[in-house]
Design brief:
The complex is a heterotrimer. In chain A, 72% of the residues lie in helices and 0% in strands. By secondary structure, chain A is an all-alpha fold. Chain A has a domain of 155 residues. The termini of chain A are far apart. Chain B is α/β, with parallel strands linked by helices. Helix content of chain B is 48%, strand content 7%. Chain B contains 22 helices and 10 strands. In chain B, the strands form 3 sheets. In chain B, strands 4-3-5-6 form a 4-stranded parallel beta sheet. A 4-stranded parallel beta sheet of chain B has the order 8-7-9-10. Chain C is of the alpha/beta class. Chain C has 2 domains: 174 residues, NADH:ubiquinone oxidoreductase-like, 20kDa subunit (Rossmann fold, 3-Layer(aba) Sandwich), CATH 3.40.50; 74 residues, Cytochrome-c3 Hydrogenase, Chain A, domain 2 (Irregular), CATH 4.10.480. The longest helix of chain C is centred in the C-terminal third of the chain and has 31 residues. The radius of gyration of chain C is 26 Å and the shape is globular. Classes of the chains: A mainly alpha, B alpha/beta, C alpha/beta. Chains A and B meet through helix 2, helix 4, helix 8 and helix 11 of A and helix 2, helix 3, helix 8 and helix 17 of B.
Chain lengths: 229, 456, 349
């Protein structure tokens, strides 16, 4: 079995399986913990309106912006670039369509009549480069900023690594970097994605899910009290 | 419960300083009870396990170490010391959560991926949790993940208390409160005496221990011992409104050092006194005084302590006054002064009574000059959460106070006003320290001083 | 009887010197050698004795033989092929039965240590009865023939890597030549089938230089297997620009766009199809509108489907996903239950 066969075969199957198992384990293991009903009289009984905090916290209040703008901008630059490359690069769309067909029996075209759009390769390359640059910038910031340096641990650095690796290896593979056998570049890229999948449930990357839970919980508690969101 | 080993009688209080507290101790005992270190840690861990529910767990899982909470914290703002990063205050508890209670706890323990918390760590963290946190909630407002860090700090304090690792002063005053009914010497007897001479001196009727009343009023020890005019003001306003109200000697102390110290049993005991007193006199409304954490303790935590919805409304005095303003019952003279309002964190940002004080100020016809930032994002005075009672934290608190001075100076307002006696005494103490020529005023007293009384 | 040299043989067949030199030049360039070497190739081939070649067919479909002998008209290639003393080849030989077998035995004996052994088809290691020649199983026949071979050409993907019979579940226990023979030089000319001119080019190089050409990690001559189809594909600009055929005979397909989405394995397949092409340079699969199936690579049958794009993989099935969900949920419920129990215990004490 070649490295590429391994990456497209057992490595992919196991990493997807571990991802699903880990994510559910962690989410349910938290969501099924004890919760106590709040018996206080609410100021605003429609606590569900507090879910708007999920959107509100997407940008800091003006008063807090001075010290946080850099982190926010870099964070968005990374996330937007990453997600664009992940979901709108043609070979990736094929990957997801294949899964969709396997699980739902159809891809998007079968469901709504038009396929998932793809972005031109030039744009994908650009946003990937921006994403990588943003990641490098935040890593430097994490080393240099005393607050982040103090509170950072293995999770922060390893999660950074498993996030940048697919971006970098993807760009290298796509560029068919001279002198390197393409099938190996592709295999390394796939393996880096599989590493990301395996690590995902166990580190801070889970914030992709918990962000909704945490913001939502606080939103509802605070809204009920009429407290500042 | 651990018994004190270092004092057999309550610590002496001092009232002649700008803020009331126990006198600055010659020797601090920031560790309570005699027990082996392992047991301290064990008790702390057990406490965390008891406290952590789904919401706390979600928060513990969500931190992405962005460090932005530091940008919102006044202690970090004035020192730029990263150890004051709010979420860092929870570090041992985060470890404990992951090791003892989280979904992967079994893995963490089996592979020893998170060390057991040590006593040394807990001791180090005492200062972070008690000296450099006022539970003001600015960090909770900033966090991009929406983590309510302030509430987690309060919960962490339970563990510290159970481990016998709370600051000297907090332990001392909480013991007083538990044993005497007041943290600062305002025992029922003292309170009764005070009410008598206040009623006499100011020629105001102050009902005590009525069997039936619509409104139960409560006070904070700070007001009873240091700002007695607030007691008079309360009485004046209630009488002006013609309310059927009373004080009750079996439930008048609104402060809750149990909450501040992390002593859950004491917190409940102190809360239940107020609730029982209100039930005893059939009150439909319980009014909390100008105090911050008192509001949090009863308005938002009281029913949960009680085990069922409270059979009466709970209002901060500022909310009560605002209601009366809206209903046209409070007749006020106009005060032609420029005013800036300091938002007490627990009442405004955390408590939700954001506009009530402003409605009252509007009714007083003042020129309201908001400081910047204001309302939900206003800076904390630096004295809440028990910090002003803690002598060890003085230097840090004075540094933080500079922020408030600058804010107020910028407005050039004649009259800074607030509606929390703890903020007020923090301002008094800061004013004395910096020899600042600006004095903080009480909204309650401002209202009482400007009532349009009928000529009878 | 001394057999004529190759040069004599060709002249006797009416091949002009010019035609012969043109062939040698083409061969030189196909091997990636300088055209200045053409005279040397010519000189070597001219003097070459027609070496003895034994061709053993094992578990094969005869496609490799078909490929090589596909009539390109009376081209140089086929003449060269005939210029080798092909002493044993089932499809092409006239003899059969004992006559054929004894001819083989005699050729192997007379040319011991010098004959070139060509093998096509895989070798079954399961029941020896799966594939036999004159009652002899393939495995022992190969072992015996390898003893006296100067070199072995594993012709086609079956001989080079196991090919179709080796595909999952490999019921015959098929293996490649290189799995059986360890002590002789082996040239893997893979492809299903290989391109005719690749075979003759490799043979020509062997005849010219008397040694095995430079091989890649899989034993294939770098001259023909040194680059991927993708590297030389004329549709590459469309890949770069992201213009793909979405289905067979759609507009993109008709415009000759890249076939990546239709499962083309060009990027990971090493062969000369995109340059040398098939049928004397007529076309190759991609040019005909079908993606490369990667037939010169090991296990190309088991890479997940010819029409599965390279960027897809074996992520599982609805069942494996469902099982994972179930396991994850169970673990989550269990850990929450455990935590709740610890909480109750802590509260009790």
């Amino acid at each position: 079995m070649t490295l590429l066969d391994f990456a497209r075969g057992p490595a992919l199957q196991w990493s997807v399986t571990i991802f699903i198992v880990g994510v559910l384990w962690r989410l349910l293991g938290v969501f099924l913990l004890r919760t106590r009903k709040d018996l206080s009289e609410p100021r605003k009984p429609a606590a569900w309106k507090g879910l708007k905090l999920i959107a509100l916290r997407s940008w800091p209040r003006r008063e807090f912006l001075e010290g946080t703008a850099f982190g926010e901008v870099m964070g968005y630059a990374f996330h937007v670039g990453f997600l664009m490359a992940l979901f709108f690069f043609a070979p990736h769309v094929l990957f997801f369509a294949d899964i969709s067909r396997g699980l739902l029996g159809t891809d998007l075209r079968g469901l709504v009549g038009f396929g998932w759009p793809t972005l031109p390769n030039g744009i994908i390359t650009l946003v990937s480069a921006v994403s990588v640059a943003a990641l490098v910038a935040v890593l430097i910031h994490r080393f240099v900023n005393p607050v982040k340096r103090l509170i950072s641990n293995f999770d922060d650095y390893f999660s950074w690594f498993v996030t940048i690796a697919p971006l970098v290896t993807g760009m290298v593979a796509f560029s068919h970097l001279a002198g390197w056998p393409y099938e190996r570049l592709l295999a390394v890229h796939l393996l880096s994605v599989e590493l990301l999948l395996v690590w995902f449930p166990f580190g801070k990357l889970m914030h992709a899910f918990t962000i909704f839970a945490a913001r939502g919980a606080t939103g509802m508690i605070f809204e009920r009290r009429g407290a500042s969101l | 419960m651990t018994e004190t080993t270092h004092t057999r009688r309550p610590e002496p209080l001092e009232f002649d300083k700008p803020r009331v507290s126990i006198a600055k101790p010659e020797y601090r005992f920031d560790m309570q009870g005699e027990m082996p270190e392992a047991e301290r840690v064990e008790r702390a861990m057990k406490s965390f396990v008891k406290d952590f529910g789904r919401t706390a767990a979600i928060y513990m899982e969500s931190c992405i170490h962005c460090g932005m909470c530091a940008e919102a914290c006044h202690f970090y703002e004035v020192t730029k010391d990263p150890k004051y990063t709010p979420i860092w205050k929870l570090e041992p508890f985060k470890q404990a959560y992951k090791r003892e209670y989280g979904p992967f706890a079994v893995i963490y323990r089996a592979l020893n991926l998170k060390r057991r918390v040590t006593v040394e760590e807990l001791q180090e963290w005492q200062q972070l949790i008690y000296d450099s946190c006022t539970v003001c909630g600015r960090c909770s407002l900033m966090c991009p993940m929406g983590i309510d860090i302030a509430t987690l700090v309060s919960q962490a304090r339970h563990g510290m208390f159970n481990a016998g690792l709370i600051p000297h002063e907090l332990w001392a005053v909480t013991e007083r409160a538990r044993l005497e009914g007041s943290p600062l010497g305002a025992t029922p007897k003292v309170f009764k005496d005070r009410l008598e001479w206040l009623a006499d001196d100011h020629e105001v009727e102050i009902p005590v221990d009525k069997a039936d009343a619509d409104v139960l009023c409560t006070m904070s020890s700070i007001e009873i011992m240091k700002y007695p005019d607030s007691v008079v003001a309360t009485a004046r306003i209630m009488n002006h409104l013609g309310v059927n109200w009373t004080f009750r000697l079996d439930g008048y102390e609104a402060t809750n050092f149990g909450l501040l110290a992390g002593n859950a049993a004491a917190q409940k005991q102190l809360t239940m006194k107020l609730i029982d007193a209100a039930v005893a006199c059939g009150a439909k409304t319980l009014i909390l005084p100008e105090c911050g954490h008192a509001y949090t303790a009863l308005r938002w935590m009281g029913a949960n302590m009680y085990g069922e919805p409270l059979p009466f409304r709970v209002l901060h005095i500022a909310e009560f006054l605002a209601e009366q303003v809206h209903e046209g019952k409070l007749r006020l003279k106009k005060v032609p002064k420029s005013v800036t309002f300091h938002d007490p964190c627990q009442v405004v940002r955390r408590g939700g009574a954001i506009e009530a004080p402003r409605d009252v100020l509007k009714a007083l016809g003042v020129e309201l000059r908001e400081m910047h930032p204001t309302k939900g994002t206003n800076w904390c005075c630096g004295g809440g959460g028990g910090v002003v009672a803690n002598h060890r934290a003085d230097d840090l608190r004075y540094k933080v106070f500079r922020i408030k001075m600058e804010q107020i100076e910028k407005t050039q307002a004649e009259l800074p006003v607030t509606t929390c006696a703890n903020c007020r005494q923090t301002f008094d103490d800061g004013q004395a320290h910096f020899k600042w020529d600006v004095k903080m005023h009480s909204l309650l007293e401002l209202v009482a001083d400007n009532l349009i009384e009928d000529e009878r | 009887m001394s057999s004529p040299t190759l040069g004599q043989f060709l002249r006797a067949r009416g091949v002009t010197r010019r035609e012969f030199l043109r062939f040698c030049t083409a061969t030189a360039s196909a091997m990636g050698l300088s055209a200045s070497l053409a005279p040397r190739i010519a000189a070597a081939l001219e003097q070459a004795r027609r070496p003895s070649v034994i061709w053993l067919p094992f578990q094969e479909c005869t496609g490799c033989t078909e490929s090589i002998t596909r009539a390109h008209g009376a081209t140089i290639e086929s003449l060269i092929f005939e210029a080798i003393s092909l002493d044993y080849q089932h499809t092409l030989q006239a003899a059969a039965g004992d006559a054929a077998e004894s001819a083989r035995a005699r050729a192997m004996q007379e040319n011991f240590g010098e004959y070139l052994l060509i093998v096509d088809g895989s070798i079954p290691t399961g029941n020896p009865g799966y594939s036999t020649i004159a009652g002899h199983d393939n495995l022992s026949m190969l072992e015996e023939a390898a003893k006296g071979a100067a070199a072995i050409v594993a012709l086609g993907t079956c001989a080079a890597f196991g090919g179709i019979p080796h595909a999952n579940p490999n019921p015959t226990g098929a293996v490649a030549v290189s799995d059986v023979v360890r002590n002789k030089p082996i040239i893997n000319i893979s492809g299903c089938p290989p391109i005719p001119v690749v075979i003759t080019g490799v043979l020509a190089q062997y005849l010219t230089f008397g040694k095995v050409p430079e091989l890649d990690a899989l034993g294939r001559p770098i001259a023909y297997y040194g680059q991927t189809i993708h590297d030389r594909c004329y549709r590459r600009p469309f890949y770069e620009r992201g213009q793909f055929a979405e289905s067979f005979d759609d507009e993109g397909a008709r415009r000759g766009w890249c076939l990546y989405k239709l499962g083309c394995k060009g990027p990971v397949t090493y062969n000369a199809c995109a340059t040398v092409k098939w049928n004397n340079g007529t076309s190759f699969p991609i040019e005909a509108g079908h993606g490369c199936i990667g037939c010169s690579e090991p296990d190309f049958w088991d890479k997940g489907g010819f029409y599965q794009p390279l960027s897809t993989g074996n992520w599982g099935t609805a069942k494996t996903v469902g099982t994972a969900i179930g396991v994850g949920a169970a673990l989550g419920i269990a850990s929450a239950a455990l935590a709740r129990r610890r909480q109750k215990a802590a509260e009790g004490s």
